[in-house]
Amino acid sequence: MDTREHNQERTGKLQGKLALVTGASRGLGRWIAFELAKHGAAVAVNYANNHQDAEQTVGLIAEAGGTAMAFRADITKEAEVAGLVQEVTTAFGRSVAILVNNATGPQPMLSIEESDWAAYMDQLEFFVKAPLLLTKAVLPGMKAQGKGSIINIGSEVVQLGNARFSSYVTAKSAMVGMTRSWANELGPAGIRVNLIAPGWIPVERHEGVDTSDYARTLPLQRVGEPQDIASATAFLASDEARFITGQCLSVNGGNTFGI
Questions:
Q1: What's the confidence (pLDDT) of residue 4?
Q2: Where are the transmembrane segments (predicted)?
Q3: Residues with catalytic annotation?
Q4: CATH number of 12-251: 3.30.565.10, 3.40.50.1380, 2.60.450.10, 3.40.50.720?
Q5: Is the whole-model pTM more than 0.70?
Q6: What are the two backbone dihedrals, phi and then psi, of residue 99, each rounded to the nearest 5 degrees?
Q7: Domain spans of the chain?
Q8: Sheet holding 67-72, edge to edge
């Protein structure tokens, strides 16, 4: 993606806030991190394996005048999550105010006959366990600040119920219930919890894939871009959304209508 499209006028609506974005070395996570930094947040770019890609994300942010650092951690492992949050808060000298649970793993399409419990657990590790570990780790800092924003990246598959994809659909569905329960529990502490449900947003791994058939099914007649998800994330992270919590925002060109 051409970074020139993203070098818009910087605003300060997230100024002074520290954001932690998981799975931010590439794909949607990269552009979410970039957008948060564009609006003034300092960004911790989490990655699991590819240090070079993570540093490229940091470089793009720095080139645009933002502040970011890369931090490696497997966010499905409790000890590594605790170490990640401690390392991030020490490096930036402040507590995390914005948490974006974006990281994902392989997403195999399997029939019911091909599926086993391990296939379901693989998805639940990323979309239920990891957000739980991360949220628990950042909560003390958010509660001390008296506010915070947690944004879970879900999927339109919850409504579409794609065939041969039940392990992924199930885990993403669990994210919806988790988001709403957390919003009720954490609201009195000033912490907002929301979910963004993207449609199919082509990123690096989809290079060369024909998107025309999918686009024709959408009311807006085009596929989404990472910027569409990034902009929605920055809005929900900001005080502009200070009275919004427990919501599931579909960002998919009208493919579905709310969850």
A1: 45
A2: none
A3: 168
A4: 3.40.50.720
A5: yes
A6: -120, 125
A7: 12-251
A8: 67-72, 42-47, 18-21, 98-101, 148-153, 191-198, 248-251
